[in-house]
Amino acid sequence: MSHRRIPKRKAVLAGAGAAGIAAAAILLPHANASQSGSGSAAPSNPKTMSAASAADLVSRLAPKLGEAFGGAYYDAAKQQIIVNVVGDDSKVVNQINKAGAVARSVENSAGELKSAASTLAEKATIPGTAWSVDPKTNQILVTADRTVAGEKWNRLESTVKSLGGGMARIQKSAGEFKPFVSGGDAIFGGGARCSLGFNVTTQDGQPGFLTAGHCGVAAKQWSAEQNGAPIGTVQAATFPGDGDFSLVTYDDPATQAPSEVNVGGGQTVQIKQAADAAVGQQVLRMGSTTGLKDGQVTGLNATVNYPEGTVTGLIQTNVCAEPGDSGGSLFTQDGNAIGLTSGGSGDCTSGGETFFQPVTTALAAVGAEIGAGGDAGAGNGDAGAGNADAGAGNGDAGAGNADAGAGNADAGAGNGDAGAGNGDAGNAGGADAGAAGNGGAAGNGGAAGNGGAAVNGGAAVNGGAAVNGGAHNAG
Predict the structure, then answer these.
(1) pLDDT value of residue 195
(2) Would you please indicate which residues are annotated as catalytic (active-site) residues?
(3) Which is more confidently placed, 441 or 203?
(4) Neighbours of 8 (CB within 10 A)
(5) How distant is the alpha carbon of residue 116 from its chain centre?
(6) Which distant-in-sequence residues (6+ apart) come within 8 Å of 270 by Cβ?
(7) What pTM was estimated for this model as a whole?
(8) Strands 129-134 and 198-201
(9) Backbone angles phi, psi at 8, to 5 degrees
(10) Helices then strands, each counted (H, E), the chain
(11) Which pLDDT value is given to residue 182?
(12) What pLDDT, in 10s, does the model give residues 408-423?
């Protein structure tokens, strides 16, 4: 079955999708990652680079800086990487400048922030909370949703205060942390509704796609339409534990699986390769519920504690999402596959926080590639190689909430949303499936226990995060 046989899906998103891509085209050139603090020491000739190149530079530079490293982020407006430095060692600053980055003086090292996040995990793992390192303020940003009150709030607040001044801050979220459902083209299985993330080519050359792990454990076979004939079978699924991603292979080996994301209105974005995210990077998200939306990466290596289980190593963003968007594609305008929608809080009216499974991690785990087979569109070729590495051990728990899908049924499995899969880290989606045994439709799905806060101060532009999943009904 070809992805190109889904006219209903395209019709549904024609308005929202086309409007979204137009908005993104206007917003992206003017995206601005503000620089906090006044301690920047600009190099004489800082390099301009893409967010992907910036993440790669930091992953190589951070280990060399040792305890002086305080995280990093990408300045999208200037296309520069800002590296936080603790102390006044001129050799360290010169090393950063020589690499083409901008050194910025801060108080907290990545190691200190990681230790503080571990304390939060031990003493304040409360459903409805989240934390991640914010390299722009050089602090841990702790978020509490509307369910955190009374004794829970007091415990969270006292734990944050115990970390010392300037180490962490708390903000309130109007919504509730929960997994989302669906994302690109909708897929259906076992009464649950999820979304196809990115098309991939498996190790043996078969066409397949990545989606959420909690979807993969909820149903073995998936269809392009509700109650329709199966088009794909789950080959591997991780949830909860070290991720939230699944590999599904198409039952028909002749299926066309183009490396592209269907953004609605007959438009597609060609996916060239999988890439790691960078804090400050501008990204696009495609979802079958809310269409195309954009925003920025705000944190890396986030740990999410949904009621169904713990997921680690996720990407945190301010891109809005709603139930029905889980499992969908997170990508860049120039065709890099970044992540798969997992869950978060808020909606596309009030905003909120959203978490994604890194594609690179999923690809490495299942041994698949992006753009290396199927009928990938012109010039998309094989991207993926080299991305396959991403840190294993990411994302644990995942999301539950089986969103059964009424009304979403259209999106046919295969179309665009998933471009030959960037796939690494299949962060897939939020609640669609009922994770861990909860399967069925509209169920409450996946688990999410508590998870520590794995804050990563090191490479790849910063650090950890942790989220305690609160309520998560896929509405």
Answers:
(1) 80
(2) 214, 244, 326
(3) 203
(4) 13
(5) 23
(6) 259, 260, 335, 377, 378, 379, 380, 419
(7) 0.67
(8) unpaired
(9) -60, -45
(10) 7, 25
(11) 32
(12) 333 333 333 333 333 3
How long, in residues, is the chain?
Answer: 475
Contact between 218 and 439 (Cβ < 8 Å) = yes
Paired strand residues for 82: 73, 102
Mean pLDDT of 233-251: 89
Arithmetic mean of pLDDT over the chain:
73
Pairing of strands 192-195, 102-106: unpaired
- State the Cα–Cα distance between residues 326 and 222, nearest whole angstrom: 15
> Could you write out the DSSP letters of every residue in 195-263?
E--EEEE-TTS-EEEEE-HHHHTT-SEEESSTT--EEEEEEEEE-SBS--EEEEEESSTT----SEEEE
Q: What is the pLDDT of residue 44?
A: 56
Token pair of 142, please? 């702790």
β-strand pairing of 291-306 with 465-468: parallel
- Tokens at residue 97, please? 């400048």
Peptide bond into 240 cis (omega under 30): yes
Task: Give the best-scoring range by mean pLDDT among 9-13, 183-187, 340-344, 448-452.
Answer: 340-344
Q: What angle do CA 80, 117, 181 make, to 5 degrees?
A: 75
> Which residue in 17, 1, 458 sits closest to 268, CA to CA?
17
| Residues 6+ away with beta carbon under 8 Å from 5 | 412, 414, 415
**Statement: residue 30 has pLDDT above 50:** no
Contacts (Cβ under 8 Å, ≥6 apart) of 233: 220, 221, 222, 248, 249, 251
Coil, strand, or helix at residue 19? helix
Question: Is residue 121 pLDDT above 50, yes or no?
Answer: yes
